[in-house]
Amino acid sequence: MVHPSQDQGEEPLDPAMVALAGRIRRFGMVSIGILFLGIFAVFGAVLYKATSRGSSIADLEEGAVLTLVAEAAPGQAIHEMVASDGVLTVALQAGEAAPARLIFIDLARLRIVASMVIGPQAGN
Q: Exposure of 43 by Cβ count < 10 A (0-12 exposed, 13-18 middle, 19+ buried)?
């Protein structure tokens, strides 16, 4: 007899198996809950990033960036460029004897991220 008759009922599980089935069911529910929390966190981060607007030079107060650059390194700005990630690059020339500098400014936080000397340094 390959297929048992449908009339035969299943035997009741012993208490240990019932407890094990309950633990497995609870573990599955907790795992699914954590999975959904993770998915909601990712969607929340994507939604936040999509709706938040980064600042640009037009949004900043007049002269705020120039004041920051003037405090960091005196000199004349010879080139300015805004990257897509919101970092302003300013090339400065302080004079004939001083080397040119590049200053990278984060426009969202309005602070200097990096500064580097380009060209020959003094004393070389």
A: exposed
pTM for the complete prediction? 0.39
Do residues 48 and 33 share a domain?
A: yes
31-89 tens-digit pLDDT: 999 999 999 999 999 998 888 765 554 555 545 555 555 555 556 666 666 666 667 66
Sign of CA dihedral 3, 5, 10, 11: negative
Q: Which is nearest to 79 in space by CA: 65, 94, 92?
A: 92
Residue at 124 is within a domain = no
What residues make up the domain containing 107? 57-118
27 in the same domain as 77: no
From CA 46, how far away is CA 36, in angstroms rounded?
15
Structural domains of the chain, count: 2
Q: In angstroms, rounded to a whole number, what is the distance separating the alpha carbons of residues 88 and 111?
A: 10
Q: Within this chain, do residues 70 and 114 fall inside the same structural domain, yes or no?
A: yes
Q: How high does pLDDT run on average in the chain?
A: 74
